[in-house]
Fold this sequence. Notes:
Elements: E1 6-13, H1 19-30, E2 35-43, H2 48-54, E3 63-68, H3 74-84, E4 89-93, E5 97-98, H4 104-111, E6 118-120, E7 123-124, H5 135-144, H6 150-155, E8 165-169, H7 170-175, H8 188-198, E9 203-205, E10 210-212, H9 218-234, H10 236-239, H11 244-254, H12 258-276, H13 283-297
Helix pairs in contact: 9-13, 12-13
Amino acid sequence: xxxxxxxxxxxxxxxxxxxxxxSDVQKLLAMSxxxxxxxxxxxxxxxxxxxxxxHKVTELPNCRHIINKENKGQARILNxxxxxxxxxxxxxxxxxxxxxxxxYISKYADYMKENVDIVIGGLKNPDSLPQPDATLRYKYxxxxxxFRTAEYRNKHPYRHFSKFNMMARRSVLLEIPFDERxxxxxxxxxxxxxxxxxxxxxxxxIDNPLLHLGFDDNAKFLNKTETAxxxxxxxxxxxLFRTHIGQAIIVIKERHLTTAVRxxxxxxxxxxxxxxxxxxxxxxxxxxxxxxxxxxxxxx
Length: 300
């Protein structure tokens, strides 16, 4: 008789209700032959409504709810979850995801028998704008879809590394944890992809998406973008040349255009922000805004 694989579903959340997500995953696991657990961890959540709602996961079989009063940040909370896990395999799921396939668990289970270390399932965006004031995030995500097919991601397996929906051997995650220099939003999974590549870990991308529900309004997404750029600045020696914005920054500096771009950014910043916060936000303006914001960080 084949011994079932052991798997831990790890969901970190901050002020976000994810009981339905955990319940939907648990139902699929219950129909499988896997020995499993689900851990939902609050990363310093303050919203008592979502905390109380999430605590209902303890009523589900093999489910735990951990409340961390301190906000650890993405890298630290994910590493904490790995240490808490008991499974041979771990599946990370972002709390703002939704299961859209009855085969979600079984597709991952098929790869547990293969000679791979990490399997990344991908994501799907809603077909229409989820809310009127989320145009910037929605346009950005829709444009990125061309780089998110499994076929494309497998051509660049370490570059398109995402913990939104990812299965990995726990032993590998303990060997190569998330980089805890990423104390704020952004780049913790990209850095892990770099390290996995250096260590020659076997990463495979498949078509097993979860629906992405977390569409921030324009103001919140712009704030998150600025936070991610500050994170990139902190780790730029390891990461800058591996990113699209980093490659643009390098060209700007090589051509001695830094002063000119900074000047235009400062001059136009109110107009740029007005566009990005509006319902007709423009991605080219967004790209220039990011360049200017990053170059300004050199002066801080």
